[in-house]
Amino acid sequence: MRVRFLAIAVCFVMVASLVSLAGAEEAKHEFIGSKKCSMCHKKSGIAESWKATAHATAWDKLTAEQQKDEALKPFYTTGTDAKGNLLTGIQCEACHGAGSAYKSKKVMVDKEAAIAKGLLMPDAKTCAKCHNEKAPTDALKATVKDFNFEKMVVKGSHMMPSKTKEVEKKK
Q1: What is the pLDDT of residue 27?
Q2: DSSP SS3 for 77
Q3: Cα–Cα–Cα angle for 137, 118, 14, rounded to 5 degrees
Q4: CA-based nearest residue to 103, from 114, 87, 95, 94
Q5: d(Cα 105, Cα 83) in Å, to the nearest integer?
Q6: Which residue has the higher pLDDT, 134 or 95?
Q7: Of 103-107, 141-145, 161-165, highest mean pLDDT
Q8: 44, 49, 50, 54 alpha-carbon torsion, rounded to 10°
Q9: Own/partner long-range contacts of 107-113 (Cβ < 8 Å, ≥24 apart)
Q10: Helix or strand or coil: residue 99?
């Protein structure tokens, strides 16, 4: 009886440990907002070039009534930060993933490390999460018909990193 109890206790501890380890590996990435992203990406010109896009001002283009519509929020905001503040517009993390784990310079200098910590490298599928036939507004649906990722990424996101390096060399 004693051996049986001990075996059950050992199994319980092992299962509890595995559950605990699995939870520890699932890091919760939280949004930090474009202001924090721009602290590092300002000098390169990326932050400023993003501010000039329709994504940056998407929320501002909605009427006050539309801003109250919960169905539109996933298409015109990034989400909320850890404090529950609504991140309006399509900010950096809407395409690049929540940045809490990869935001430090130590991580960002190593692309693979940043990706391992949650950095996403956007592609056409990323854009299609909003620009699709199920989009709630005509403005988003209209872009689906003639959507060309290579053309749209240049005018819809921000200055690309290869161009960024040229800007930094000129300074």
Answers
A1: 57
A2: strand
A3: 120
A4: 114
A5: 23
A6: 95
A7: 103-107
A8: -170
A9: 108/40
A10: coil
Tokens describing residue 161: 């990193």
pLDDT in tens, 3-25: 454 444 433 434 343 333 334 44
The torsion defined by the Cα of 130, 131, 137 and 139, in degrees rounded to 10, comes to 130
- Fold type of domain 28-170: Flavocytochrome C3; Chain A, domain 2 (1.10.1130)
> pLDDT tens across 27-56, in order?
589 999 999 999 998 888 888 988 988 899
Distance between CA 50 and CA 138 in Å, rounded? 23
Fill in the DSSP letter of residue 102.
T
What is the predicted pLDDT for the residue at 19? 36
Instruction: Provide the residue count of the chain.
Output: 171
> What tokens were used for 170?
């000129």
In whole angstroms, what is the distance from residue 9 CA to residue 160 CA? 56
Report how far residue 108's alpha carbon sits from residue 123's, in angstroms, rounded to the nearest whole number. 19
Is-contact 56 156, C-beta < 8 A? no
For 100-129, write each residue's pLDDT tens digit.
999 999 999 999 999 999 999 998 888 888
The amino acid that residue 24 corresponds to is A
Domain spans of the chain? 28-170
| pLDDT at residue 127, as a whole number | 87
